[in-house]
Amino acid sequence: MKYLIYTLLFVQQASAQAIDQLGLKKGITMNGSINASMTAYKAYGIAQRRDPFAWYLNGNVNMNLFGYSLPFSFSYSNQGSSYSQPFNQYRFAPSYKWAKLYLGSSSMQFSNYTLAGHVFNGAGVELNPGKWRMAAMYGTLLKAENRKGYGTKLGYENNGNSYSISLFAAKDPAHYNQTAAIAIKQRISKRIFADAEYSVSLLNDLFFDAIQAGVGYNGNTYALQLRYERIAPGYNTLGAYAVVNDMRNITIAPAVQLFKGRMSVTGNAGMQVNNLDHAKMSDTRRWVASINTSITPNEHWMMNAGYSNFNTFTRVRPLADPYFTNPLDTLDYYQVNTTYNTMLLYKIRSSAITLNTSFQHASDKRDANDQLSSFFTANISYTHLLTKLDLSLSTAFNYYYNTSTGLNTEFFGPNINISKQFFKKTCKAVLLSTYNITKVAQVQSRLFNTGLTLGFTPRGRKHNLGGSLLYLHKDRLTEWTGTMNYAYSF
Fold it and tell me: Most buried residue, 1, 220, 320, 377, by CB count within 10 Å?
């Protein structure tokens, strides 16, 4: 038993286990897999782009000791090797009913602006008795900077309503940070709900705050939500990897269902601004609008369509010079990005036809100059299944066109994929071929790529043997790649 306790304290990446589930009845089990592969490569017309021969051996083993997991993995090849085992770093997260303990390398979430998922090496606890929610942690956040942090959270939940307060502090030789957040989620009526969170941060004796709030309405066939977020310039917390500050964001998001749910429409519109304290030399405003529609009239047809528009306006204010009068005291800069996309699907019995299109238009307007770029992609595909023959056939045609300042790029071509199963579905063969033509300005290139893949998996499914042969030809370049692999699962 003493040996078992010592082993559990040095586990690297074990999942959370319940203490009340640990017992002798679970015993000792082991599972995993071992994989071996070899690759041969040869190119003509260009320098070799990879080694002519390579081999790889890798595997993973997971031991379960009386309900607790100890995993490790290894990888070897003629190009290097690595080995990972469960005794360098550890994570131990046992739980019992409403109590959970974190030991080792862990992460916890208090709020978006206090402790927000930052990994720490130390200890933490979560207690959820009844309607109460309590959490606490202490540990090292960044070892290289000797940054240590600690925090606690207290909350109460009842029938979808919640109230919480969280505190977090962190310190290293260059920074000292204290944060606090109060969050409320309240259902006002059967259909109306609201939430709000207010946070403050003291970073090296400088004070910042942040607020986010929302209100929404859920109807039988429609919904509407309004959100507001403001993060003061300079706001930061050492409990998060990144915080976007100096930003005010207002959004509205409607949604509606029509024709007994066969058609749904969702939208999102909003505005974002920065430079809230007017201390920067430029202001930026972003307008966002998007709408998505989905229609399923019957079992054969499905249609989706989407539209989005992102506009950005930046006004640059030069430094004031009292001895020089500049007639161009500001510079206005616009960016517009508009996207359309559609999907049309028709299926009947064992066949399906799909059409996808996407168009994106972007423009930059600076000093009355408009620089444009456009992207258009289209794909049409056909799939047919012959169930009695264990055969599937799919073919597609792809098209892509891009135009930008003085440069046009065009790409198009077909591909085909044939898959067949043999010997009571224990053997599978796949043939894939692609032919593409690319035009860049006045230069044209052609590419042909084909490959055959074979795989064999006996009924027991513990063994898998496979191989592939790939051929690529582009202009004067030719490449051959062959692969053999074997896998064993236990």
Answer: 377
